[in-house]
From TrEMBL:
One Pfam assignment: Sushi
Disulfide cross-links: C29-C56, C92-C119, C162-C189, C225-C252
Keyword annotations from UniProtKB, A to Z: Disulfide bond, Glycoprotein, Repeat, Sushi
Organism: Tetranychus urticae (Two-spotted spider mite)
Name under which the protein is recorded: Sushi domain-containing protein
SUPFAM superfamilies to which the protein is assigned, alphabetical: Complement control module/SCR domain
Length: 327
């Protein structure tokens, strides 16, 4: 389509719109077209135009580019006057990778030199863990959503933890950098051990069984005492997830009958036959023999014989006598 607007400039009189020699015609094109040829023609005395008339040719334009997500577009990328040789430069935001051409040029046929590129998130290599006790990873992307540990985009953070009864050797969190690299190395999980029981200060008369040395978390160590002694504390200890036994190591104390304190007005003659400096306590150790005698003003109530601490029952052989005032 060609549109020509002719303006007649007469150097003399113009009659009945007749173009006479000496007239000048100027030409312009409608919007969207460009003039090919002279913009003015002179009507010669020979009744010929001074040159061939021009023509209007549609101007070549490229369509505006669509915005590229997560990218910076610089140059002639948008608008209506995108003509041949115009260029548009495209670069991705940090954390994104360009797929395609970064520079597009408007060609003479009204098309761009290549298709529009895209920006895809930069990803870090999948997390890999070594050792029999595999660490656990919980990863969150920049938007705050959970993501798998095999598809980590730039800006994501992964928290590293270990299974129950293991301890982490390494950082507790790592982040995916815009370069596509992790900011730290992935650690390992090691078994949790408790101190050896034999390396502790253990009281006499105690023996242990079970996993008491090189004990791992949840292992159990049991204790027993030799005959004549009883355990004081827990007879079973568990290695906890903090690397410590859950209770103190027990002790073995000598088994005995209840101690027998001398009553008012009495004395134990088993340790002082002459009745001098007699003890005020009869210890309840097995086979211990005690005999009570009452002093002046008191009379004996109960057996007059020796009372023995029986080893098999840890009970006194008879009811313990006492002294009461004589009224």
């Amino acid at each position: 389509m060609r549109v020509v607007i002719i303006q007649i400039l007469s150097l003399g009189n113009k009659t009945n719109s007749v173009i006479i020699p000496g007239s000048i015609c100027s030409f312009t094109c409608n919007p969207g077209y460009q003039l090919i040829g002279p913009d003015r023609l002179l009507c010669l005395s020979t009744s010929q135009w001074s040159q061939l008339p021009p023509r209007c040719q549609q101007i070549v334009r490229c369509n505006p580019l669509a915005p590229v997500a997560n990218a910076l577009m610089i140059g002639s990328c948008f608008g209506e006057l995108l003509i041949p040789l115009n260029t548009c430069s495209i670069s991705c935001n940090p954390g994104y990778l360009l797929v395609g051409q970064s520079l597009l040029t408007c060609t003479t046929d009204g098309t761009w030199s290549s298709s529009l590129p895209s920006c895809i998130p930069v990803t870090c290599p999948p997390l890999t863990f070594a050792g029999p006790d595999r660490p656990l990873a919980s990863c969150v992307n920049p938007q705050g959503s959970q993501s798998s540990d095999s598809n980590i985009v730039s800006g994501s953070t992964c928290r590293i933890s270990c299974p129950y009864c293991t301890i982490l050797n390494g950082p507790s969190s790592i982040s995916c950098l815009p370069s596509g690299q992790w900011d730290g190395s992935v650690g390992t999980c090691s078994p949790i051990n408790c101190p050896d029981i034999t390396n502790m200060a253990t009281p006499d008369f105690i023996t242990s069984q079970g996993n008491c040395n090189n004990a791992r978390c949840d292992d159990i160590c049991t204790f027993r005492c030799t005959p004549g002694y009883e355990i004081q504390g827990s007879s079973s200890l568990t290695c906890g997830p903090n690397g410590q036994w859950n209770q103190p190591i027990p002790r073995c104390i000598q088994s005995k009958c209840p101690d027998w304190s001398v009553p008012t007005g009495g004395l134990f003659i088993n340790e002082c036959p002459e009745g001098l400096n007699c003890p005020s306590l009869c210890p309840g150790i097995p086979n211990q023999r005690c005999k009570l005698r009452c002093g002046a003003g008191y009379r004996l109530v109960g057996t007059t014989e020796e009372v023995i601490c029986t080893p098999s029952t840890l009970q006194w052989s008879q009811a313990l006598p006492t002294c009461e005032p004589i009224r």
